[in-house]
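Teaching assistant's notes for section 4

Start the section by putting this record on the projector. Ask students to predict, before seeing the second block, whether Hedgehog/Intein (Hint) domain-containing protein will look compact or extended. Collect guesses on the board.
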Amino acid sequence: MTLPHSLQQAAAKAAESSALLQDPAALRLPNKPQLRRYEVSSLLPNGGIAETRHIAPALPIFEDAFCAFTRGSLVETTQGPIAVEDLLPGDEILTQGGGSQPLIWKGSTSLVPSRSDAKGRCHRLTSFMPDSLGLQKPASCVVAGPAARLLRMPPQMRGTTGTPLLLTLAEEFRDGMNIFETAPPTVVDLFHLCLPKHAVIKVGGLEFETYHPGPEALKLVSYAIKTLYFNLFSHVDSLSGFGPLAYARAAEATDSPLRG
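Reveal the predicted structure now:
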């Protein structure tokens, strides 16, 4: 049995696209920007779940929406801890201060943390050993992605009176002993979660923020990039749709792996 010519062409194009996504050498060629696959699960207005796959540039604005939690990270829900990969839109996630919110969006992507992209950015992870931030914080090892932020006082501000807790990138807490950088040479699945309102949730016993792009996220990007970006989110069509930040964010380091 032979495939129709049109299907053969489609298969060839798919293989060509796949090669572009997987071959680091191809990604460095002129006029071939690095692309990445992103998978999204969304809660529909009727209570159903939509699962979509996207191909978009490997730019910080996209990667930040997918690179917070590694596979196996346990998220506190009203039904108890659930691994992030097993969460479904509609699940009730416990939030800081009591109460819960339904999961309305879950994004995931796969990357190799030890591999730098064409612009030299890398996506190294941060490992928190048990009790590294206090008793049972975390209770077992937690590995956070480059976009993960903790609700804690930044290390450089410790001892400063009157400093509020700030959402701080996980990498800022690395001490080289109990909290350290890790960069596996193999593919790692990463996830992020979005609730109706920006919030802090417990993942592995630590207080992490849910996804929010930030009020200035799209300030300098083109219309085409904005269109691609909002195509990832069925529940918003502008930055205002994400609402306000629940807590202030610490100033981000200029050499963060997702900046550039």
